[in-house]
Amino acid sequence: MAELYPHVSHLSFTLSDEEFQQFEQNYFLTGTDNGGESADFIQFSRVRLPKIKVGQKSVIDYSKLDKATHSKIEILAKIPHDTEVMKARMCPKKQGLIAAVNNQGLVNLYQLNGITKGAQAAHVACLYGLKEETFCLNWS
Fold first, then answer.
1. Res 69: pLDDT
2. Cα distances (Å, whole numbers) of residue 4 to 37, 43, 52, 72, 107
3. Measured between alpha carbons, how far is 108 from 88 in angstroms, rounded to an integer?
4. Over the stretch 72-91, which tens digit does the pLDDT of each residue have?
5. 40-68: per-residue pLDDT in tens?
6. Which one of 35, 114, 122, 132 is most buried, by most CB atoms within 10 A?
7. Cα separation of 121 and 23, whole Å?
8. Cα(21)–Cα(6) distance, rounded to whole angstroms?
9. CA 89 to the chain's CA centroid
C-alpha cells in the first residue's frame, strides 16, 4: 500500500536560499497513515519556492536552477511514529521540538537535532490524558 499523508503542517519559518537569491526554503511536516500495513512516521521536509512580494511584480530567473531540484520536495528526516499521525506541530519558541498526536490520543514529543538533510530526532516524552483521537494540536 502507498503511504498516505493525511496531515500537512507548514512551519512558521522560511530561510533564504543561499544558492539562489530569488528563492527561499519553506519547511513543513507531514504525517503518515499506512493503515497498519507498515510503520508510520513524521516527515520533516522542505521545498524551494520563489520569493514573492505582495503588491510588487516579481521577475524570477529560472535559467540557472537545476531542474532536478527546483520546487521538488526534499525529505530531510523521517521520524518513526507509533501509529497514524493525526496532527504534528513544531514549537514556534523552540525550533526542532515537535509534538504529534496519534489516533489514540497520545501526544509524542520529539527533538530534532537540525534542519538539514539527515537530521535525527529523539523521542523525549509522551503526554497522556486524552481518551480518544483528536484532530486538534497546537502550542501556546
1. 63
2. 11, 12, 30, 18, 20
3. 9
4. 788 899 999 988 888 899 99
5. 899 999 888 888 777 877 777 777 677 76
6. 114
7. 27
8. 33
9. 8
Domain assignment of residue 133, yes or no: no
- The SS3 call for residue 56 is coil
Looking at residue 68, its pLDDT comes to: 67
Domain limits for position 111: 7-51+70-127
Q: How many domains does the chain have?
A: 1
Residue 57 lies in a domain: no
pTM of the model: 0.80
Say which amino acid occupies 73: I
Q: What distance in Å separates the CA atoms of residue 81 and residue 96, rounded to the nearest whole number? A: 16
CB within 8 Å of 46: residues ≥ 6 apart: 25, 26, 27, 28, 73, 74, 76, 115
Residue written as grid cell 501526544: 107
Work out the end-to-end distance of the chain between its first and last CA atoms, rounded to an integer number of angstroms.
36
Structural domain includes residue 23: yes
The model's confidence at residue 70, banded by pLDDT at 50, 70 and 90, is low
Ranked by mean pLDDT, which of 43-47, 102-106, 109-113 comes out on top? Answer: 109-113
**Residue 137, in any domain of the structure:** no
